[in-house]
Specification:
Blueprint lengths: L1 H13 L1 H24 L4 H14 L9 H12 L5 H27 L1 H5 L3 E6 L2 E7 H4 L12 H11 L5 E7 L13 H16 L10 E5 L12 H7 L1 E7 L24 H7 L5 H7 L12 E2 L3
Parallel strand pairs: 3-4
Antiparallel strand pairs: 1-2, 2-5, 3-5, 4-6
Length: 304
């Protein structure tokens, strides 16, 4: 009887072994993941730039003008750490953002009267400038023709933009009330026609290359504010000119034309092909100019 009473005590005393092993394993795993977290580096500047690219590609309004100075301060702080290549890249990004901010201030000075009259808004974020023109100061209700008073404004804007780098994307927007004037079949058509009127006026003097322009009509699919009252709908009826300066300093690929017939006599073509350098798609992508982002889920008309 005494042996039977002592067996459970032995079992209980021996059961603590696996618990200690399990606790040691958990401690080691925790230390391992803490070490991984400490070694991880998060590039905040690239993360924010990716977010901006997604907003632009999806047609979402970029309406955070105060963030440009914050972005520059962030890059200044992060450029103090990291290796030399990262620092060079951050310094280059910082210089481009400074230029964009200076261009935005120049546009604000040119459009000061219209900004004071609340007909135009100018915002900047990163390497993107947005010039937002509200319907009340640019178009008559339900029409795509520019009002006469706005032609001189676009002339001043054209003279300023011709000296600035970057692609010029003109987007038309409408509210959620269906149009019923017989001239346009839908708000999609009205928004695209208004964007075209702006581009057509800016191309009048041929001082800006037409291949810098992109035309987009979003209808009522990209409201700036919710369409809950007349005041908000008036804000959503607008045309936006976005100056996208990301990658604008990259030179296009230049090909050298042959100066005359080439004598191939005595040349082994197999050896020549084997020694010729190959150019991959990634290398062409780095030298060519392309607008980053995904295809927007709305009708897009390109002017070029």
């Amino acid at each position: 009887m005494s042996r039977k009473k002592q067996e459970p005590e032995k079992a209980a005393a021996g059961g603590a072994g696996w618990v200690m092993t399990f606790a040691d394993l958990m401690s080691l795993l925790m230390a391992f993941f803490v070490m991984l977290l400490a070694m991880a580096e998060v590039d905040k500047e690239k993360f924010k730039e990716m977010g901006i690219s997604m907003k632009v590609a999806l047609g979402s309004p970029v309406n955070t003008p105060a963030h440009s100075a914050d972005d520059i301060k962030l890059i200044k702080d992060t450029s103090k750490t990291g290796n030399s290549s990262q620092k060079m890249q951050q310094d280059a990004t910082l210089e481009r953002m400074k230029k964009t901010l200076a261009d935005a201030e120049k546009l604000k000075e040119v459009l000061k009267d219209q900004i004071d009259e609340m007909k135009i808004e100018v915002e900047s974020h990163g390497e993107i400038i947005v010039i937002r023109m509200l319907e009340s100061g640019v178009f008559k209700s339900g029409k795509s023709e520019l009002v006469d008073d706005f032609h001189p404004v676009l002339a001043n804007l054209r003279r300023t933009l011709k000296d600035m780098r970057g692609e010029i994307v003109v987007s038309g927007h409408a509210d959620d009330i269906p149009i019923e004037n017989g001239e346009f079949r839908s708000n999609w058509e009205l928004s695209a026609a208004r964007a075209y009127s702006v581009i057509d006026d800016m191309l009048e003097e041929n001082d800006i290359p037409s291949d810098r322009f992109v035309l987009r009509g979003f209808g009522s699919s990209r409201p700036l504010v919710p369409n809950i009252n007349a005041e908000n709908r008036a804000k959503n009826r607008r045309v936006e000119i976005m100056v996208d300066q990301r990658g604008a300093d990259v030179e296009p690929v230049k090909t050298k034309e042959a100066e005359g017939p080439v004598d191939l006599s005595g040349v082994n073509l197999d050896d020549a092909i084997a020694q010729a350098p190959s150019v991959g798609g990634s290398e062409l992508a780095q030298t060519g100019k392309a607008l980053p982002g995904v295809v927007p889920m709305s009708p897009v008309i390109s002017q070029g």
